[in-house]
Design goal:
With 342 residues, the chain is an alpha/beta fold. The chain has 2 domains: 138 residues, ATPase, nucleotide binding domain (Nucleotidyltransferase, domain 5); 140 residues, Nucleotidyltransferase, domain 5. It is 42% helix and 19% strand. The strands form 2 sheets. It has a 5-stranded mixed β-sheet, with helices on both faces. Strands 8-7-6-9-10 form a 5-stranded mixed β-sheet, sandwiched between helices. Helix 5 runs parallel beside helix 7 and helix 5 packs antiparallel against helix 8. The mean pLDDT is 94.
Length: 342
C-alpha cells in the first residue's frame, strides 16, 4: 500500500510518499519546507505568518513528493488533523480533502502525536508490544503506553510547560536564538571542566515523585533567577556554556528517570523516543545508555533525526495502520482539532 502523507501542524510544510506491506516501510519521498529562519526573528512561531507560508508552499511540496508518477499509484491520503495550530492545520487538511475527492482515494485523519510515535516504525526494526513511548516536543511531554496498534494510554504528562518549551524559554533568558533546543545544545557542547565553577545547580522538578508526570516551569524560573544573579558577577558569554549544559542535563535527567521507572513498572517489551526534542543528541545518548544498563533485555528505538521533527513520512506511517483497518474519513467529514488528544 502506498500512502501520501501531508503535515502542516505548525511551521513545517511537508509531504511524503511511503510504501508498506505491513512488515516493512519504504520512504519513497519526504519533502520538508521549514519556516525556522522566518520565525527566528520573532523568537517563536507566529500562527498567521505560518499559515500564509503553508499556503504558498503546500502544492509545490506535494508535487515534489509525488514525483513524475503523480497520484497514479497512491492508495490513500493521510493528513495530520491535530493537535497543532488551527490555521496551519487547515491548510494541509483542505489540500488533503481536495486530493481525496479529485483522485477518489480514501482519506485518513491522523493525530500528530500518534504520527511522531509511528516514526519509529520507519526503521523496520523489531517492535514488540507492550510499548512505552516518551513523546517530547515543544508542546508535549508525555509517556504513552501502547498495548497494540492504535491502543494508547497516557500514563504521564506535563502539568505545565513541555520540555521543548523549557528549552525555548531558557534559551531566551540566556539571550540565545530560536529554536531553543538546538541553541542550548550548541552552547552545552562548549562546556568544559575548566568552566565548571560557573555551574549553578538547577532543580530536577518531580524527578523523584511516584507518578509519571512532568513539570518544567520551576526549572525555567530557576534559570531566570540564576542568570540574573550571575549577570551581576560575570559576563554572560563566560557563563552561558555552563548554564546551557546544566539546563540540558536537568531536563534529560528528569526525562530519563521517569521513562525508566515507567518501563519497569509496566514491564514493557519496547521503549521508544519520539517528537522534536528526541533529536537532542544528549537525550539520545543518555537514553541508549540507560536502556543498556537498566533494561538490558528490552528492545529500544530512536528515530533518525529527519523523522524526529515534524515530517509527513511519520504521518503516512501512522496512516498505513489506519488504512489496514479501513479506518477512513470521508472528505466531507474530515475536521481539524487543534487540541486533539490521544
Amino acid at each position: 500500500m502506498k500512502i501520501l502523507g501531508i503535515e502542516t501542524s505548525c511551521d513545517e510544510t511537508s509531504a511524503a510518499v511511503v510504501l508498506s506491506d505491513g512488515r516493512n516501510f519504504e520512504v519513497k519521498s519526504n519533502i520538508v519546507s521549514s519556516q525556522i529562519k522566518i520565525h527566528a526573528k520573532y523568537g517563536g512561531v507566529v500562527p498567521e505568518v505560518a499559515a500564509r507560508i503553508h499556503v504558498e508552499a503546500i502544492l509545490p511540496v506535494v508535487e515534489a513528493a509525488l514525483g513524475k508518477d503523480g497520484a497514479k499509484k497512491i492508495d490513500a491520503v493521510a493528513v495530520a488533523a491535530g493537535p497543532g495550530l488551527i490555521t496551519s492545520l487547515l491548510v494541509g487538511n483542505e489540500v488533503a480533502r481536495i486530493l481525496s475527492y479529485l483522485w477518489k482515494k480514501p482519506l485518513i485523519g491522523v493525530n500528530h502525536m500518534e504520527a511522531h510515535i509511528y516514526a519509529n516504525w520507519l526503521l523496520n526494526q523489531k517492535i514488540n508490544f507492550p510499548v512505552l513511548c516518551l513523546v517530547v516536543s515543544g508542546g508535549h511531554t508525555e509517556l504513552i503506553l501502547m498495548r497494540g496498534h492504535g491502543k494508547y494510554e497516557v500514563i504521564g504528562e506535563t502539568r505545565d510547560d513541555a520540555a521543548g518549551e523549557c528549552f525555548d524559554k531558557t534559551a531566551k533568558i540566556l539571550g540565545l536564538g530560536y529554536p531553543g533546543g538546538p541553541a542550548i545544545a550548541a552552547e552545552a557542547a562548549k562546556f568544559t571542566v575548566q568552566s565548571s565553577w560557573f555551574i549553578e545547580k538547577l532543580p530536577r522538578p518531580m524527578m523523584a515523585t511516584p507518578d509519571f508526570d512532568f513539570s518544567f516551569s520551576g526549572l525555567k524560573t530557576a534559570v531566570l533567577y540564576a542568570a540574573r544573579d550571575l549577570k551581576n558577577k560575570y559576563k554572560m558569554e563566560e557563563i552561558i556554556p555552563a548554564m546551557a549544559y546544566e539546563i540540558q542535563e536537568a531536563i534529560v535527567d528528569v526525562l530519563i528517570a521517569k521513562t525508566m521507572k515507567a518501563a519497569k513498572k509496566y514491564n514493557v517489551k519496547t521503549v521508544m523516543l519520539a517528537g522534536g526534542v528526541s533529536a537532542n543528541k544528549r537525550l539520545r545518548e543518555r537514553f541508549v545508555e540507560a536502556m543498556k544498563k537498566e533494561l538490558p533485555g528490552v528492545e529500544w528505538s530512536v528515530p533518525p533525526f529527519e523523522y524526529c521533527t515534524d515530517n509527513a513520512a511519520m504521518v503516512a506511517a501512522a496512516g498505513y495502520f489506519h488504512a489496514a483497518k479501513k479506518d477512513f474519513t470521508s472528505w466531507q467529514k474530515l475536521k481539524v482539532d487543534p487540541n486533539w488528544e490521544l
